Amino acid sequence: MKHKLNIITLALLANTSFAVMANGYGLANANTNSVKLDKWVCKGCVVETGTTGSVTVGVGYNSEDDIKSANAFKSANEFAGKLDANINYKGENGYQSKVDITDLGMDNARADINVGKLGTYNLNVNYRSIATYKSNTALTPYQGIGGNDLTLPDNWVTAGSSSQMPMLYSSLNPFELSLERERAGLGFEYQAESMFTGFVNYQREDKTGTKQTSGSFFNQSMMLAEPVDYTTDTLEAGIKLKGDNWFTSLNYNGSSFKNQNNQLSYDNAFNPTFGAQTRGYMSLDPDNEAHTISLMGQYNDSVSVVSGRLMLGKMSQDQDFVTSGYGYQLPADSLDASVDLTGMNIKAVSRVNRKVRLNGSYDYNDRKNNTQVEEWTQISINDVTGKVAYNTPYDHTSHRAKLGADYRISHGLKLDAGYDFKRDERSYQDRETTDENTVWARIRVNNFDKWDMWFKGSYGQRDGSDYQASEWTSKEQNQLLRKYYLADRNRSQIEARVSYVPMDALTIDFGARYALDDYKNTEIGLTESKDTSYDANVSYMFNDDVMLNAFYNHQTIDSAQSGSSNFTTATWQADIEDKVDVVGAGLSYNNLMDSRLQLGLDYTYSNSDSTTQVRQGITGDYGDYFAKVHNLNAYALYKATEKMDLRFDYKMENYLDNDAANDIAPDGIWNVVGFGSNSHDYTAHMIMLSMSYKL
């Protein structure tokens, strides 16, 4: 008797424990003499070797006039080139490599290269560049921008006010406010056949550019360009031991920050008054270090998962003080700052039965400032008091605890609920301890055909120790003032999300959130805040080739504030309304020209608006702020050959804002030399042609 054979039959034959004798008709009696076993190959079990992926090169033209558009286009250059790559190589015996490159050559780019053997070791090389642009229309009479010594022209004539400076406007020159970061790293990971794993990663980041700051003499000040030339070195290393259902690891993280400029010196643009000083000096960000060691672990069985972490760290800073232009005796040559960090957390999740799951966590973090307290001669901006001041060693300890439960009521109906606790302990603050207790519940329903929805509600209260102004914070503070992050507060919040799929081609998703913060015991300060937001998303496939996606997001924050003009009870109120609207759509058309051409269009519009009205007997408009942005990207992708694609992109950004803080003339304020108008109103265009080749 002959039986028809398949893969399962052969597998059973290979294991005699599954052979069944049945009067000569058992599997062991099957006639396999004519079977060619070498032809029975599991195609799904074969690991393909070789190289796969694609490489893309592109070149673009940027018509920007306002450098802020480079934040959207990823390049501040008129002509920009880029390289993208996604390459995977798999060799025999587990050797493999992977190359991921995005926008290399642009101002915002990344590259990540991994080489190693699966389950044994991995070598990683990475690179990242990040650029942020604020303005290229800032104006200043100072020379030496980008350095740490700012000087006025030789023919500069000082005056008592900025509007009286005869050489101000003729001496103004534009400069750029921007920051660029370049980060490069090297890492190695080793995994032994046993339970041991180890890794080490090194990274260096260089940050350069200029940012806005100010220098002052008495009650007069000048806007200045602060040089940025930072280097940060970071080292991470760790070892890990693992078993069948547990692991533990010991990790180290260290960073060293270096600033190539320890001070900024500048000329006085005004008539010398306070101390007859003609030169000013300010210290810049000091060199510092931070080191942490952490021990982590996790245990997992079929019912529960428990994980935890213990962390110890230290931050230090011991750079010499800047004493240029300072005529008083210092109690020390440097601050010799030292801060100890301690952290601990533990999390647990346990399944009680098929319907109930419990979870809980506790986080502890402590920041202990051990810096020596010294006596300092106090100088304020408007007087020499001669009084002694002390540096304040602020400490902070936080506790976070959460308890939660999941209960599956029935198929498609689930209830979550929990309790969250927060405690913050602060030294030398108006309130040394704050406690916040929150309870919440959420129900999810997905047992209706084509519907999936959940609803969540929460209520929280914050209170704490007695609130009192302190000489460590501000003696000039109104005794009735309550800082919003320390004040008593009741928070009520509801959230909901609904998804509906009426047909296979259409998906509709909607969400909403409302939160009310009531600062019930505040007379001076923030008294109430309402946060309302909702969003809608629609996806519709007209046919196999045409698809539309659209979305709309809205958020409104209404805040109420009370203040005092006579340093006692509230005499004025302010209503602030902040609104943000974002709408967008994307349309794609595939498989044109015998499936060779794809067309697409993406568009977004965002509008943020802030208005403030002040009431003190009469109502006055304090001023509006808005920013409106249109972004458009139209593209065409053409499949030239089986391996080569050509793509054309057209991008446009239209931007308009009216930030009053950025729209002040150089002499718009009598005792300030400003940067001039730095508001934005532009339409920028970019075109890019790229070619992609599949390996």
TrEMBL record:
<dbReference type="InterPro" id="IPR020016">
    <property type="entry name" value="Decahaem-assoc_OM_MtrB/PioB"/>
</dbReference>
<feature type="signal peptide">
    <location>
        <begin position="1"/>
        <end position="22"/>
    </location>
</feature>
<dbReference type="Pfam" id="PF11854">
    <property type="entry name" value="MtrB_PioB"/>
</dbReference>
<protein>
    <submittedName>
        <fullName>MtrB/PioB family decaheme-associated outer membrane protein</fullName>
    </submittedName>
</protein>
<keyword id="KW-0732">Signal</keyword>
